[in-house]
Amino acid sequence: MSLNQASESAVVMLQAGNYWVSGEQGLAYLAYVDESFKSRRFYLGAIMLDTAEAANLTAALDRLSEKWSATYGLPYGVELHGYEIFHGEKSWEPMKLMVRARVGIYKQLIDTVLDHDVLFYFQCIDEVALLERQTRQGYPQKFATSQVAWNFILQKLSAKASYDKTEVLIIADEEADYENRRRALAEYRVSGTPGTYLKSRLPGILDTIHFAPSHHSRLLQAIDCTLFIHQRLSMKTDTDARAIKLMDEWRDQLNNSGKIRFQGTWP
Predict the structure, then answer these.
(1) Overall number of domains in the chain
(2) Which of 44, 179, 183, 239 lies at a 20 to 30 A Cα distance from 66?
(3) 194, 195, 263, 196: which is closest to 234 by C-alpha?
(4) What is the distance between the alpha carbons of residues 102 and 159, in angstroms, rounded to a whole number?
């Protein structure tokens, strides 16, 4: 099933963290969500795909990880995290001085993800600009940057799933605030998302938000690596000509892939 086509009936079973979820004629999409905060900006990214493609991409990333472990003497089944690969840190420290090899690995990783039928959603919230806007316009309640970003992403994912007459299960990287995330989703189902813009009770979201450790999920690692690139492109912090050229190539590759369904900065 293509994400750009209406979904078809399917019987699926998925292990999401400690939860077993099974469904018939409805559980078509999965969305893996990761977040990052740097220099007053909160970034949230999601990779959306159907259950069959989730299995395919997981297997592909497992094969890459095993190959790189054997080739470069990394821990078996090494985790794929953008910052660590890019800078040669933690499990990737044995490759600290192998810059070209690490760039090649990152390119192969992005190529592999984009070879699959996936969609990306990215939202950036500027913390200072948000507070200024909320103060200036006299918001009755001031929302945190993370909550605003989650609202936007949940609205987009729900709308896509509803348009395709199905639902999407949300799986996010573990975080300290996970209970508030779940509580907020439950409230939105009753009263709708805050504000008037795209206000929704999120009918396309299945169940609650499931949180899992990224070291047990290749797909959380996939969005981690993609979000890392998106964040660097957004912040434009690179000064080295080679790094700028590399980032420009990745920007063009991502934009030309047709797989970025939404990317925005607010306010």
Answers:
(1) 1
(2) 44
(3) 263
(4) 37
- CATH code: domain of residue 60: 3.30.420
Cα-based angle 84, 86, 88 (whole degrees, multiple of 5): 55
Which value, to the nearest 10 degrees, does the dihedral of the CA atoms of residues 101, 103, 106, 107 take? -110
In-domain check, residue 5 = no
Question: 230-241: per-residue pLDDT in tens?
Answer: 999 999 989 999
Q: How far apart are CA 22 and CA 13, in angstroms?
A: 4
- Whether 6 maps to a domain, the answer reads no
Q: Which domain holds residue 207?
A: 11-266
How far is C-alpha 129 from the geometric centre of its chain's CA atoms? 23
Residue 3 belongs to a domain = no
Is 80 exceeded by the pLDDT of residue 17?
no
In a domain, 60, yes or no: yes
